[in-house]
Specification:
Layout lengths: L2 E3 L6 H10 L3 E3 L1 H17 L25 H12 L3 E4 L2 H16 L7 H12 L3 E2 L2 E3 L8 H11 L4 E4 L2 E4 H8 L10 H6 L3 H31 L9 H4 L5 H14 L3 H4 L12 H4 L1 H23 L7 E2 L5 E2 L7 H29 L22 H17 L21 H31 L8 H11 L12 H11 L2 H11 L4
Helix pairs in contact: 1-4, 1-9, 3-6, 4-5, 4-9, 9-11, 9-14, 9-15, 9-17, 9-18, 11-14, 14-15, 15-16, 15-17, 16-17, 17-19, 18-20
């Protein structure tokens, strides 16, 4: 997938392609023209009245006018001084998304940077040169100043980068790739660091992952329905039609599709004394569906930001240069916090289903902890402990970051979004949810196997068959951690849902 950066915004899929699949990116002539037009405005301003970011200092130093012969030094000093992050480096996929998205904003022609600046950013990602970006430093206003400064530092041939898993000086990596260090001009240092690009990149990746996770959650829940000898009647289309939340409708549709024709569900339809299932089963589409609606909100926030120009000051088509607050990441912080809460609850209800299958008093005839020889064997007992620990962590991570603010820069920047923290937490919650669902797949899969000779539906049967390719079925106790890791890797592979869809039909 080759991507043309034409100055009109990009898609979530393109962010994922650049971040994870190393898709190459090209700056189009249209984007180059936009940038050149805006650059002419900056060069005109450099000769006139003091303009923030062009001929003044920054933040609380905005009242200091910089003479023309010091303005190039001003821009490079800005990058060096703002590259002040600390802690471990963020993930390579986040760095690639951030660099790509900063080039995207510059290509829109509202920042006043020369085309060579965007081309230099694309040179980094196209050659697999990844600046080391420390985890701590961004407050989400003025955007991701410190993370973006670490990215921009590499353009100057300074700082450390990673290439093919090897750490090296940026100057060495640029030389090996045939790239020249960039000499910055008026406003370009500020244009490189004044954006929400790392936060946006993380939100885009999380939205992409959440779409997969929520479909996966319906699959593992359906397998639990069969393993627990529960009913599918609560998911009936006419019942779902009485409540008009779109996500609930989608989740229930998935569950019915997955359970269609299930011999296990049919096996107790007429002689079961239970009149209804526990909430953790019966309310699955309500919880998973609410998470889908939350995801839709987060996706809209990401899409809107991907089509937006983020900088300060900004150049308008009529030649005006206006200071603004477009760098404030509140829209992204709210979305990340809300999505983390939703994904945490999907994991929480899955934990309750796991516990039900492992408890002999509530599992409708299954052995304690699905053990082969209860007492000698502990079965899958401790897998639930692991899930409970991750659910507890997710609850802690769901404390909103975006309700916090600490004033900085001599009270000039007196309200910040903390959206970086919200996005970092969201990534951890999503990873924990994948692991929780992997455990549900292992537990529900063993429960269904123990119901033999009655078999699951086509869709759930395909999920179980995929699991059995990497994890053995019921038996005496064995080292469990590697099996759970294999189940987690299975859920991260797009072939898992593809196999389920091939067996049962489309799933949303």
């Amino acid at each position: 997938m080759s991507i043309d950066l034409n100055g009109s915004g990009v898609s979530i899929a393109e962010v994922v392609a650049v971040a994870r699949q190393y898709s190459p990116v090209t700056l189009t002539p249209a984007a180059t023209e936009r940038m050149a037009t805006a650059r002419q405005i900056v060069e005109t301003l450099a000769e006139g009245e003091p303009t923030y970011g062009v001929s003044t200092g920054f933040g609380a130093l905005a009242t200091v006018t910089i003479p023309p012969d010091r303005r190039a030094a001003l821009q490079e000093a800005l990058v060096r001084s703002h590259a002040a992050g600390m802690g471990p480096s963020v993930e390579t996929e986040v760095v690639r998304a951030m660099v790509f998205l900063r080039a995207r904003t510059l290509a829109m022609g509202h920042s006043g940077a020369r085309p060579v600046v965007a081309e230099s950013l694309l040179g980094l990602i196209n050659h697999g040169i990844h600046p080391l970006v420390p985890e701590h430093g961004s407050l989400g206003a003025s955007g991701d100043l410190a993370p973006l400064a670490h990215g921009a530092l590499a353009l100057l041939g300074e700082g450390q980068v990673e290439v093919g898993g090897v750490l090296q000086p940026a100057s060495q990596a640029l030389a090996a790739a045939g790239l020249e260090p960039l000499a910055l001009s008026d406003k370009e240092g500020l244009a490189l660091i004044n954006g929400t690009d790392a936060i946006l990149g993380m939100l885009c990746l999380a939205v992409h992952d959440a779409e997969v996770l929520l479909t996966t959650a319906d699959v593992t829940a359906a397998l639990t329905v069969e393993g627990a000898l529960a009913t599918d009647r609560a998911f009936a289309a006419d019942v779902m039609g009485l409540r008009l939340h779109p996500g609930q409708t989608v989740s229930a549709d998935n569950l019915r599709q997955l359970l269609a024709g299930s011999p296990l569900v049919a096996s107790h339809r007429d002689d079961d004394l239970r009149v209804q299932d526990a909430y953790s089963i019966r309310c699955t589409p309500q919880v998973n569906g609410a998470a889908r609606d939350t995801l839709a909100f987060a996706r809209t926030a990401a899409i809107n930001e991907l089509a937006s120009a983020i900088d300060n000051p900004m150049l308008l088509s009529d030649g005006r240069v206006e200071s603004c607050g477009n760098f404030h990441a509140a829209p992204l912080g709210f979305a990340a916090d809300f999505l983390a809460i939703a994904l945490s609850e999907v994991g929480a209800i899955a934990e309750r289903r796991i516990d039900r299958l492992l408890d002999k008093t509530r599992s409708h005839g299954l052995p304690p902890f699905l053990a082969d020889d209860p007492g000698v064997d502990s079965g899958l007992m401790i897998s639930h402990y692991t899930v409970a620990a991750m659910c507890a962590e997710n609850k802690r991570l769901c404390t909103p970051a975006s309700v916090d603010s600490l004033p900085t820069s001599g009270m000039q920047e007196d309200h910040v979004s903390m959206a970086w923290g919200a996005a970092r937490k969201l990534r951890k919650v999503a990873d924990n949810l994948r692991r929780i669902l992997a455990v549900e797949l292992v537990v529900a899969g063993r429960a269904v196997d123990l119901r033999a000779p009655v078999v699951p539906a086509a869709g759930t049967g395909a999920a179980l068959a995929a699991l059995r390719h990497v994890v053995d079925g019921p038996g005496s106790d064995r080292h469990l951690a590697p099996e759970l890791a294999k189940a987690e890797a299975l859920l991260a592979d797009h072939n898992f849902l593809a196999a389920v869809r091939a067996a049962c039909g489309p799933l949303a």
